[in-house]
Here is the input.
Amino acid sequence: MLKKITIAVDAMGGDNSPEKVIKGISLHSKNDQNVYYKIFGDIKKINEFIPKSLTTSLYEIIHTEDEIKSTDTPLSAARSKNSSMCLAIDSVKNKESDIVISAGNTGALFVIAKLNLKMIESIGKPALAGLWPNKNGTNVVLDLGASIECSEKNLVDFGIMGSALFRALFPNEDSKVAILNIGSEEIKGHEIIKNAYEILNSNKNSNFKFNGYIEGNEIMDGLSNVIITDGFTGNVALKTAEGTANFITGELKKAMTGTLMGKLSAILNINNLNKFKKRLDPRLYNGAILLGLDSAVVKSHGSTDHIGFTNSLELCVKIVSGNLIDKIKQSID
Here is the structure.
């Protein structure tokens, strides 16, 4: 029998919480009975949304009325030792849970996690990894903002951690690492990127293939599936991709609903349009992963709904069952 995976859930973070969190847990539990949810938050507010269908043997509620607001600074949040977020992270620190998830204040989550969870030995800086669609499946992209300034060692570490994450999530696929750059030629880029290229190109790692440089317009091609960069560049790329996707879907919606011919065309192409919509649905890729700590920390988007939160819970399951932390440590060794 498989050992149950225990997820520490901050129920109070993000928009429309704890409602969306509890609905997400309820939906996720219907498809996976091998997960135990330790839910941290205000028990009165949480119990309003607990459905009768959610078996009591699958969860427990750890009561606290303290919660971290979106307006709290990371340092002030870190002093709130009895908040739902702090208690959830403590649960992982004390080995009572396998992984922690929150849809709350991003800066607070990362600071509290870094203060309470140990860094993996020889990893210099943490990285925030996200999942992006590509033509062949899914990319892991990091760093998305955790470490703004990076050395060549940090970028190499990101390649190791990103590759381990990809293999944990997609065990039947090979990880292919590339460095995001302004060109594909070896002479392009600043010294840190060039040095990272040299290290990754010369130190062959059996856990991934190094594909060299990749430009921004090639990220979605699928020839590489682990894209590494510094946090500043990665965050700009993320926001640009999100804005572009929103623009395309918005313009398509206007074209399909603005005229009678457009509406008729939409009806005739409803199946293809639904496929297009699903492919770009951000809820499918909800959940950024803070890597580099001795336990993975998952950040659900604060504005997602219960379906998006369900997908981030499934991401937690894959991370734990895929032995992500062990894979990172083995790659370093």
